């Protein structure tokens, strides 16, 4: 079904965006902790 495929694609893009955001946050937190030393 086309609707299901579209839904899966949107979900995949959403998950990728969330993971990318989490990676950015982790890098930011790591850099922040480095400056606290």
What are the salient characteristics of this protein?
single chain, 37 residues, mainly alpha, 1 helix, rod-shaped
Query: If you compute it from the alpha carbons, what radius of gyration comes out, rounded to the nearest whole angstrom?
Result: 16 Å
- Tell me the structural class: mainly alpha
Helix content, binned percent:
over 70%
Terminal CA distance reads 55 Å
- Percent range for β-strand residues: under 5%
Task: Write down the overall geometry.
Answer: rod-shaped
Number of strands: 0
> Which sequence of SSEs, written as H and E, runs from N to C?
H
* Low-pLDDT residue spans: none
User: Would you tell me the overall average pLDDT?
Assistant: 94
- Please report the number of helical segments: 1
**Major sheet summary line:** none
In short:
With 37 residues, the protein is mainly alpha-helical.
Structure description:
By secondary structure, the protein is an all-alpha fold. 95% of the residues lie in helices and 0% in strands. It is built from 1 helix and no strands. It has one helix at 2-36. The radius of gyration is 16 Å and the shape is rod-shaped. The model has no long low-confidence stretch (mean pLDDT 94).
Task: Set down the secondary structure blueprint.
Elements: H1 2-36
């Amino acid at each position: 079904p086309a609707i299901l495929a579209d839904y899966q694609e949107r979900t995949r893009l959403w998950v990728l965006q969330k993971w990318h955001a989490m990676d950015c946050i982790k890098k930011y937190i790591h850099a922040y902790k480095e400056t606290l030393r």
